[in-house]
Amino acid sequence: MQNRAKPKLENIQRLEKLYKYLNYEVSSSVLYIGSWFIPIFIPLLILAAIVFTPFMLFVLYKENKKGWIIFFVVTTIIPIILLTFLYPILLMLGLIPFYFFCFILRMEAKGWITEMRARNDLVLHKIRKENEGQDLEDWMVMR
């Protein structure tokens, strides 16, 4: 009897949800441009960024993407804090690095999802190969 570890499928639901929300965040950058002409959008954009940031940081932490968390703090949080204390009139410019970060993260998250799906397909292929000839009824179909 062999003592091998059973292959494990990776959970990609958090990343898929993050990617979906990043699509909304990146598309709301159009509202940011419009907020220069219609200032009513500014509080909505700030509120959306404040509400989305904890979820984004949680997913990055759970996926062990510490470099991305540090990059977010350096490119977004520190400039916003500096703008708040030094030039509060320019606080609206603090959203520019946030949307830039969301845009880059969205592109990278798509790659992470693709890689995780490929690894899951490989694990499923290995399981099927090990169980060839056996009658298995309950297979989970992966996208």
Concise account of the structure shown:
The protein is mostly helical and 143 residues long. Helices cover 71% and strands 0% of the residues. The protein is built from 5 helices and no strands.
Q: What is the number of helical segments per DSSP (H or I, 4+ residues)?
A: 5
Radius of gyration: 21 Å
SS-derived structural category:
mainly alpha
Strand tally: 0
Strand/helix succession: HHHHH
Largest sheet: none
Which helices and strands, and how do they pair?
Layout: H1 13-27, H2 29-35, H3 41-62, H4 66-86, H5 95-130
Helix pairs in contact: 1-3, 1-5, 4-5
Describe the structure.
By secondary structure, the protein is an all-alpha fold. Helices cover 71% and strands 0% of the residues. The protein has helices spanning 13-27, 29-35, 41-62, 66-86, 95-130. The longest helix is centred in the last third of the chain and has 36 residues, at 95-130.
